[in-house]
Design brief:
39% helix, globular, TIM Barrel, two-stranded antiparallel ribbon, alpha/beta, eight-stranded parallel beta barrel, binds flavin-adenine dinucleotide
């Protein structure tokens, strides 16, 4: 089913975002996470995509070996495995970073053959440590260009019209939106304008970056509607789980933490009090969003589902 078919006005649905396991780890860790989440009947499970990064390791002779690798490979295989084991719709993330257009086309052909037709399309971040995003020399610079490539394939237009008459694919595409603007964008307005470009190019829904103040989300949706973005906007929720999140979430993602939340977290005396305060905050955010009639709530699980299970149990 298309993700958007779930947004039929019959109530707020749930999606969970999972990470592929670290290279060398078993798929069983993902299955045990899904075993805990499936009781909530999610409309879909998203699987993130992780680009390559530089990794240093110390060899027995003391020399440092540096190489470039993907620490969390396997998005496509994992999506297919989950889909076939659980019958749940899956949404692999697909990114521009690190890929040529031809490699992207190959990955899309794999997905099409596997019967996976929902995608969340993103640019990706720069290589870790570099701070800036550099596209592959034969790749895309922005998510909108990748959306266009996919929409071309949906019309039967491939990068090279080769060998046989190409078949049209049937991908349904979601894209990312930033209620507090993307960290690189010079202004909220320019970022919103580029978001509209992604929707005009064919994206059927938007999943937002995490936020901790629902007013930010409601304003964002209003601004989207004001400039003619009519597609469903799905709020992304991530509970604060450790005190350090108060620093690193704003730093990495450019999101704000309301004083009330940071006050509550800072008053906690133990790690488990922090964890619980993060859950309570996400519960009240989720309850208000649900009451407002959002089509779905997207939970960033980071593949550690304990807090998410409690939040969803208390809200749905
Ligand atoms: P874009 O839409 O391409 O925007 C990037 C920046 O460029 C913005 O500042 C925008 O304003 C600007 N811009 C856009 N189009 C243009 C244009 N045509 N000309 C000039 N400027 C433009 N990252 C991963 O690596 N893997 C994942 O699995 C992943 N999943 C995510 C899931 C969600 C729900 C979200 C919100 C983010 C996710 N990310 C993931 C992070 C994402 O890749 C980063 O936030 C990235 O920096 C931007 O991606 P984007 O698709 O929003 O980029």
């Amino acid at each position: 089913m298309k993700v958007t078919d779930y947004f039929d006005g019959s109530g707020t649905r749930i999606s969970f975002e999972l990470l592929p396991p670290l290279r060398g780890s078993s798929i069983e860790s993902v299955y045990s996470t899904i075993d805990r989440l499936k009781e909530f009947n999610p409309s879909c499970i998203n699987i993130t995509y992780h680009r390559e990064e530089s990794v240093k390791s110390k060899l027995p002779d003391g020399t440092i070996h540096k190489r470039v690798l993907k620490k969390r490979p396997g998005t496509v295989g994992l999506a297919s495995a989950i889909h076939h084991k659980y019958g749940i719709d899956v949404v692999p993330h697909i990114i521009c970073g690190g890929f040529s257009k031809q490699e992207t086309e190959d990955a899309l052909i794999d997905l099409d053959f596997l019967g996976i037709h929902n995608l969340l399309v993103l640019r990706g971040d720069g290589e870790k440590g570099t701070g800036t995003f550099r596209p592959h020399k034969d790749g895309h610079s922005y998510a909108v260009d990748l959306v266009r490539q996919i929409m071309d394939m949906n019309r039967g237009v491939y990068i090279e019209p080769y060998y046989s008459v190409p078949g049209a694919t049937n991908f349904s595409v979601g894209v990312a939106g930033y209620p507090e603007k993307h960290y690189e964008a010079p202004s909220f307005e320019s970022d919103l304008g580029y978001l509209k470009m992604k929707v005009d190019a064919g994206a059927e829904y938007i999943v937002t970056q995490m936020f901790f103040d629902n007013r930010v989300f409601f304003d964002f949706v209003r601004h989207c509607r004001d400039i003619g973005i009519e597609v469903p906007v799905i709020p992304g929720i991530k509970p604060v789980a450790i005190k350090k999140h108060l620093e690193i979430l704003p730093e990495i993602f450019g999101v704000g933490i309301p004083d009330e939340l940071s006050g509550e977290i800072n008053r906690c005396k133990t790690d488990s009090e922090v964890y619980q305060a993060g859950i309570d905050w996400a519960v009240s955010q989720s309850a208000e969003l649900k009451k407002s009639g959002v089509p779905a709530i997207h939970y960033y699980t980071m593949s550690r589902p304990d807090n998410i299970v409690e939040i969803v149990r208390r809200v749905f």
